[in-house]
Amino acid sequence: MIRLILIILLSFNLYSNSQMPGFLIDKDQVLPANEAFNFKAAINDETILLSWEIKKGYYMYLKSIKIEDNFKELDYEVLESQESIHMDEFFGESKIYRNKTLVKLNRSSELNPNNILIKYQGCADAGFCYPVQIHKIL
After folding, report:
1. Residues 70-92: pLDDT tens digits?
2. pLDDT at 94 over 60
3. Which residue ranges make up each domain of the chain?
4. pLDDT, tens digit, 9 for 90 and up, residues 12-30
5. Which of 5, 67, 98, 130 could form a disulfide with 74 if both were Cys (CB 3.0 to 4.6 A apart)?
6. How many CB atoms lie within 10 A of CB 134?
7. Does domain 32-136 have CATH number 2.60.40.1250?
8. What sign results for the dihedral spanned by CA atoms 23, 25, 28, 30?
9. Which is nearest to 19 in space by CA: 96, 92, 88?
10. pTM of the predicted protein model
């Protein structure tokens, strides 16, 4: 029995030199999603600007950003970002954003900001990935 416990402890020690699995990460080491990805929206007559201030040590997946109006996905333009490639163990090479991301959505007469949902997902470099975050603009 003692041998088994020693093997398990040694395995965790060897494994800790690589990436720690999510269930073993101390939750105090990662920020809540709203702090790691500080989201803001600004609306004017012609556009809706969406921005994320992404804390150091965190990143957001490019493919995860979805803007929907009544379940219809809307096109948007990325105005500012620090894009890079991240090797994801599940998704392979993935484009990610770090630091700040600014997105522009053209506002048409049919577009009602009350119906728009913003969806995105990101992770901490420590190995913890957040569930998809969903925000309403208003």
Report:
1. 889 999 999 999 999 998 777 78
2. yes
3. 32-136
4. 433 333 344 444 445 568 9
5. 67
6. 11
7. yes
8. negative
9. 88
10. 0.75
